[in-house]
Amino acid sequence: MDCLLFRARNNRHTHALHVLRRCYREHRNPQAVLPALSRAMGHGSLASTAYYLSWIDPVVELAVERVARHIRPVLAASSGGSHD
Question: Containing domain of residue 75, as a range?
Fold first, then answer.
């Protein structure tokens, strides 16, 4: 029974992270979905759900990818010029 409970908790965590990552990918504020996510997960407070925002690694990876996409053309243009 403990194993089954553990698996259910894993699915809840995975779902929460997927929702927050999807918001970030779609250029939406992840905090804006916290009230609905909190209700869906049965949390008693937003603070319990906001905990998932602290699992920053996936979000940092997405942020790095986004910055790289935007800065790549700038770096390419500047590397073609003369260097003093």
Answer: 2-79
- Determine how many CB atoms are found less than 10 A away from the CB of residue 74: 9
Predicted model pTM: 0.55
Q: Is the dihedral of CA 61, 64, 70, 75 positive or negative?
A: negative
**Residue closest to 22 by CA, chosen among 54, 62, 66:** 62
User: Is 84 part of any domain?
Assistant: no
**How does 6-31 read in b/e, with b if 16+ C-beta sit within 10 Å?**
eeeeeeeeeebbebbbebbeeeeebe
Contact 59, 20 (CB under 8 A): yes
Q: What pLDDT score does 20 carry? A: 84
Domain total for the chain? 1
Q: How far apart are the C-alpha atoms of 40 and 23, rounded to whole Å?
A: 16
Task: Answer whether residue 52 is part of any domain.
Answer: yes
